[in-house]
Every structure is written in structure tokens, then in C-alpha cells.
Amino acid sequence: LILITLVLVGWSYVHYQYLESREFRLNQLSELPIFVYMDDMNQLQQLARELLETIPEIDSLFLESGLQAAQEMLSDFPELGIEPNTLTEYQFPNILSITFKPQLSSFAAREMVLKVLHDSNISSRDIDDQTPAWTLAKKELDFLNSRWSQTTFFIAITVFLMIVFARLFLYLKEAIHHQGKSLTILEKVRASEINRLHNALLSTLPFLINIALYYILLALNKFPPLINWSFFLVQLITLVAAVITAILVNKLTFPGKESSKITIAVPYEPKINE
Predict the structure, then answer these.
(1) Residue 61 carries which DSSP code?
(2) What pLDDT sits at residue 32?
(3) How does pLDDT run across 171-197, given as a tens digit for each residue?
């Protein structure tokens, strides 16, 4: 039980590390906005409203004049030696910055935004879509998801086999202990109750300890809540499936032992013909 519990806790830790890494990379998406440059401010405002109404994955839209953006840039980099006030005599295009929410659906939402921009006859030269950065982020997330799937499958199989062999060991130990012995009715009932107790403990106790430890640490504010209940459901299904498999294997191996019934013998009394 202790070993299985430790493996479950380790499984939860690995899954949490995956969720942290995925969240970190998804948060980077909000730092990769699409920039749209346009001289007509009214058309840019209309475009911004259309995007905000049709694409829910958009986190924010920021509209500013080109002059304002240039002045802010010069204020942030005084080492350039250019006074912001000297830019008033120049003509700059207006800028629309489109940022996305940190979620996987933002990749598809970005493609939808680019389609809307192209359908609005905006030249590709007036769009900074940061394609290389988005492509790299997608590759990193795909690689992370692939590694997570492989690791989860390996750990699930390991836990499954550990429980199956642990339960079969207990069945074998019991069979060796009772080998060559004739059990009384009370001993059979007691053995059946012990088997049910072992099955219940193996399928629930490690799971309950694991999930209790997670929520205790959450209550102590040790880390933010990232693990969804569905992950713990997968762990529980793995435990229950392993116990059921062990029971079936034991019945196939010792069919007489598991299927034996308790019978009461009634002594035969011969009739005497008078």
C-alpha cells in the first residue's frame, strides 16, 4: 500500500509539472500580439469591434495612433537621443494590437483573425503576425503533450501491474497457507471478508491519501490549483481495473477455491420396515 501510494503521489507530481509547463507556454501566447497598421482610424476601429464580437479567444484589443506609439518608444529608449516632440511633423499609421487568451484554442483563433484581416483587403505588409514565434510555441506545446501522453501511459501501466501482482501475491499466500486444510464455515466466511477488505484497501486507500494530500497542500497555499478532477478519476479507474483484473485472474487460476459453496450435510437415516 505504501509503495502504491508513493507511486500515485509521484504520478500526480509529474502531471502537475506538465500542467505548469503548459500554462507557462500558453501564457507566452499573450505576449505575441498581432499588429495591424492602417492610416484610416475609423476603419481600424470598425475592424476592432468586429474581431472582438466574433472571436472570443481575443484577450484584448489596443488601438493607438502611430504618433503616440512612436513617442512612447522614444520615451522608453532615451539613449536614441531623439526628442519625442520632434515627431509631430511626421505621418505615422495607426496601430491595432491584438492579444489572445492563454489557451490552446487561441491558435485556431489567430488563424481566424488573419483570415478576417485578409478578407478586409489589408495587405500582408501591414500585418505583423509573428508567425515564427507562434510556430515555435505550437511545436513546444505539441512536444510537451506528446511527452506527457507517453509518461502518463507508462505510469498508468506501472500502477496497474503493481496492484495486480500485489493482489495476486496475497491470493497466492492465502492459497499456500490453506493448502491441504479443510476450512470450517467460519474460516471460509472470515477469509472472504479479508479478501473483500484487501480489495477495498488497494482500490481506494492509496487514491484517497493521494487526493487528500493534494487538497491539503492547496489549502496551505503551497501551489495554485491546476489539476482537474478528471485526472484523479483516471487514477481511480486504474486502481479499480487492476483489482478487478486480479480477481478475475485468481478465479481462472483457482476456480474451485473461489467458486466453492458452503453446504450443510444432512445425515441419512435409513428407514426400518416394520
Answers:
(1) E
(2) 92
(3) 777 766 656 556 566 666 676 677 788
User: What are residue 68's phi and psi, to 5 degrees?
Assistant: -60, -45
Backbone angles phi, psi at 224, to 5 degrees: -75, 155
Q: Tens of pLDDT along 79-130? A: 555 555 655 566 678 888 999 999 999 999 999 999 999 988 888 889 999 9
Query: Residues spanned by CATH 3.30.70.2190 within the chain?
Result: 33-129
Gap between the Cα atoms of 5 and 2, Å rounded: 5
Residues 6+ apart with CB under 8 A from 12: 210, 214, 227, 231, 235
What is the assigned CATH class of domain 33-129?
A: alpha beta
DSSP track, 233-271: HHHHHHHHHHHHHHHHHHHHHSHHHHH------------
Cα distance between residue 201 and residue 206, in whole Å: 8
69-78, 162-171, 184-193, 204-213: segment of lowest average pLDDT: 69-78
DSSP for 176-239 reads: HHTTT----HHHHHHHHHHHHHHHHHHHHHHHHHHHHHHHHHHHTTSS-----HHHHHHHHHHH
Cell numbers found for residue 273: 420396515
Taking each helix axis from N to C end, the angle separating 185-219 and 2-27, rounded to the nearest 10 degrees, works out to 30
Q: Which amino acid is at 46?
A: Q
Quick check: 170 and 198 in contact, CB under 8 A? yes
Number of C-alpha atoms within 13 angstroms, CB side, residue 249?
17
pTM of the model: 0.74
SS3 103: coil
